[in-house]
């Protein structure tokens, strides 16, 4: 059985790591380079680095920050925010990112998935999907979960896979920041639909929430931000907890 992955998410605004609920009421959570290095030392499996203001403010993610992070860590990390073309993705991968993540731009232009996958390979592309449950359906949202679209979670994830996405990062905007647990029911359904890896995001509050995402939600990886940034859950303790609960996980030697 493949080992499950623990991912720390660094939401970036104006060069600082921030965290709030559903991307609002943001508060400073530290320097992203220092946090990335600390997480690598603690044994986190991967990092996701998202410039959450890039799409809303029409800014491009700065490659120089990626270079600084890549120089300090030796674990895989994904970069997202403001990527709307192959030309946007290329300098980020050149700067040291292992993967790029696209979200709002892919909803607007689904061919972007094909373009990036064809240019670099599906293993370099993560399709991030933010969704809320509206009238018993999981509706895809864009721009940090603030704008509803006519796309539905399950059909969009399947289309993303067919177009060449190598991984799906699903964030339940209903759960994000609540610390009440992941959205395990839609995670399980996504797992049944997809052949590519699935990352759970939104709702982590306690170690057993991660265990549930892996056992009930069948996720391949689980992502969190604030509980890690503010020390509420420590990576080594979380991994030991998961191992003790018979969940395959990589422990730092």
Whole-number count of domains: 1
Overall mean confidence score, pLDDT: 90
The biggest beta sheet is recorded as: 8 strands, parallel, barrel
Kindly state the percentage of residues in helix: 25-40%
Could you say which structural class the secondary elements and strand pairing correspond to? Answer: alpha/beta
Question: What is the element string, with H for helices and E for strands?
Answer: EEEHEHEHEHHEEEHEHEHEHH
Q: Report strand %.
A: 25-35%
In DSSP terms, counting alpha (H) and pi (I) runs of 4 or more, how many helices? Answer: 10
Q: The CATH topology, please?
A: TIM Barrel
Name the strands of the widest sheet in spatial order: 1-4-5-6-7-10-11-12
- Give the tally of β-strands: 12
Unreliable sequence segments: none
Text of the CATH class? Alpha Beta
């Amino acid at each position: 059985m493949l080992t499950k992955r623990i991912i720390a998410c660094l939401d970036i605004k104006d060069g600082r790591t921030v965290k709030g609920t559903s991307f609002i009421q943001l508060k400073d959570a530290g320097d992203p380079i220092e946090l990335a290095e600390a997480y690598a030392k603690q044994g986190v499996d991967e990092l996701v680095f998202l410039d959450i203001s890039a799409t809303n403010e029409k800014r491009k993610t700065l490659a120089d920050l990626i270079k600084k992070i890549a120089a300090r860590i030796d674990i895989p990390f994904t970069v997202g925010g403001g990527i709307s073309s192959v030309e946007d993705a290329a300098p980020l991968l050149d700067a040291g990112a292992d993967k790029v993540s696209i979200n709002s731009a892919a909803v607007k232009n689904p061919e972007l998935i094909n373009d990036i996958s064809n240019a670099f390979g599906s293993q370099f592309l993560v399709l991030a999907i933010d969704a809320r449950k509206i009238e018993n359906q999981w509706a895809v949202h864009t721009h940090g979960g603030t704008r509803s679209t006519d796309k539905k979670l399950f059909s969009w994830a399947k289309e993303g896979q067919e177009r060449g996405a190598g991984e799906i990062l699903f964030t339940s905007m209903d759960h994000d920041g609540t610390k009440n647990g992941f959205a395990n029911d839609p995670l399980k359904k996504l797992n049944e639909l997809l052949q590519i890896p699935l990352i759970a995001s939104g709702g982590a509050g306690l170690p057993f929430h991660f265990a549930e995402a892996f056992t009930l939600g069948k996720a391949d990886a689980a992502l969190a931000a604030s509980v890690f940034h503010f020390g509420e859950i420590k990576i080594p303790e979380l991994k030991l907890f998961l191992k003790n609960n018979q969940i395959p996980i990589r422990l730092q030697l």
